[in-house]
Amino acid sequence: MTPVLEAKQVRKKFGGVVALADASMTLEKGEVCGLVGANGSGKTTFARIISGLIKPDGGELYINGSKVDLQLGFEAEQFSIALVHQNLSLVPEMTIWENINLGREDTGRLGFVQIDKAVNKAHEALKELAPHLSVYERVKNLSPSQKQLVEVAKALSKHPQILILDEPTASLSFDQVKRLFEIINKLKKQGTSIIFISHRLPEVTEICDRLVVFRDGCSVGVIEREKINQEEVVFLITGKRGEEIGKVKAKPESGETKADTVLEMEDVSLGDSKEGINLQLKRGEIVGLGGLQGQGQGKILLILGGLLSPTTGNIKIEGKSVVIRHPRDAIREGMFLVPGDREREGLFLPHTVFFNLIYPQFSQRETKFFLPWKELESEANRIIDMVALVPPDKNMIVSNLSGGNQQKVVIGKWLAMSPRILLLNDPTKGVDVETRANFYQIVQDLAQKGASVLFYSTDTDELVANCDRVLILFEGKITQEICGEELCKERLLEASLRGGDIAEN
Ligand SMILES: Nc1ncnc2c1ncn2[C@@H]1O[C@H](COP(=O)(O)OP(=O)(O)OP(=O)(O)O)[C@@H](O)[C@H]1O
Ligand SMILES: [Mg+2]
Predict the structure, then answer these.
(1) Best of 11, 17, 349 for a ligand 1 pocket test (most atoms within 8 Å of beta carbon)
(2) Which of 11, 12, 13, 14 to mutate to test the pocket of ligand 1 (most atoms within 8 A of CB)?
(3) What pLDDT digit, counting tens, does each position of 271-320 carry?
């Protein structure tokens, strides 16, 4: 059968940077083909080229057997292709329904937008993905995962022949992923062809019929369904056969019992819950925040990071009450937040990697005039090395980095500052398998040296691998604590789903 899409030897350079050197792939009707590769290996660039958003320097593209003139340019709609962008493309000031219909508004005879029709279309697209989300909500008020779901709904509402999902699950929790996978499977049965890009290898293994692997801008392998196993995939992605890569090392057993309490939250209210949050974090402890997405985990971190003011309650650091009204207050206490929304809270996108990396140090120094530039430069290079930034260039403008490499900048700047308390808000989304393992190691090392870590993640495997104990949240309250032998994926999933039952009793 003729493939729905066939791309051959696609090439693309941005200035001196080779994004794609020799990338090929085919996509059959009704197939889910995974596209995997390290950060910066060219996946997003490829997705943008086959959706007509950028022109390649060379290569061929066939859709349903007909050759597309790539140099002429084309619109994705022409070939019924819809792309779910990695860096979301929504307009924050607009509502969900306006975003979903943007550019495709149905107009009546007099040229007015038919609002009822547009609202219905949005509702239809969103109802299975996020049944509780109102289409009248403005996008700027949504969490990263809600925005992601709207972005997917926007693509679904076009009923495409080819659906390209560029890391659709990076900020989704397991229940949202499950719903998305049900939809993917349904679309597949209806004959839609899907390209699924992700760094979460267990998900890729679950949903894909076939995998294409990119390395350094080249397609280096295809793995058929029956041969998809994590070890082989990691080998093709990294080019290394390492016992350690991709596998998370067991948490080191600390000999001493963790005694000193470093951080306490006493009855801190998040405004939307009658009861406050009570939690304690000990020296050297890594405590996870689990539960379904959006149960108040992010708010706890934002309060501690100085980005949200609690309405009531008390925060103590090493026994002393502290007032945290601004990120500066948190930073002064050695409490650093690795944010969840890298574009909004974490990065100065139009600036260089260097500026982004040294900014926190800059804001901490007494004088802003006589800065030891040489020292700061070598510090920036050290961080670039530590997080394995690609390309390892401190003068690169951050918006030109691939998604995962942007996230490495967010992570790197705080890890490098010897935190006393580290607040991680879903830090590894979009980060590749090797860098992830490297990042876990850095966090474990910091904890060994006495840092305390509060770790929110939408990735349950990540919580199990890193945390001493996990607190399950439900509607802004901590409903359970899971530790020791109980701390496994199944138990976490069960506790998250049962959060409601317990909270109601
Ligand atoms: N507009 C641009 N200007 C300069 N370089 C770019 C631009 N867009 C992409 N690149 C570079 O091209 C390379 C490939 O980037 P791409 O975004 O395709 O990677 P990716 O595989 O999607 O990575 P990730 O997993 O991190 O999302 C990277 O080195 C990136 O820095
Ligand atoms: Mg990408």
Answers:
(1) 17
(2) 14
(3) 665 678 999 999 999 999 998 877 889 889 999 999 888 878 999 999 99
Q: What is the CATH number of domain 248-334+419-505?
A: 3.40.50.300
- Report CA Rg, the chain: 23
- Provide the CA 17 distance to its chain's centre, in angstroms: 24
CATH dotted code for 5-238: 3.40.50.300
Domain boundaries, the chain: 5-238, 248-334+419-505, 344-418
Answer whether 5-238 and 248-334+419-505 agree in fold: yes
How confident is the model over 457-480, as pLDDT tens digits?
Answer: 988 889 999 999 999 998 888 999
Q: Which residues line ligand 1 (CB under 6 A)?
A: 14-15, 17, 19, 37, 39-45, 86, 390-391, 400-405, 430, 432
Rounded (10°) angle between helices 353-364 and 403-415: 20
- 452-456 and 218-224 beta bridge pairing: unpaired
Strand ranges, E, within 65-215: 66-68, 81-84, 162-166, 193-197, 210-215
DSSP 248: P
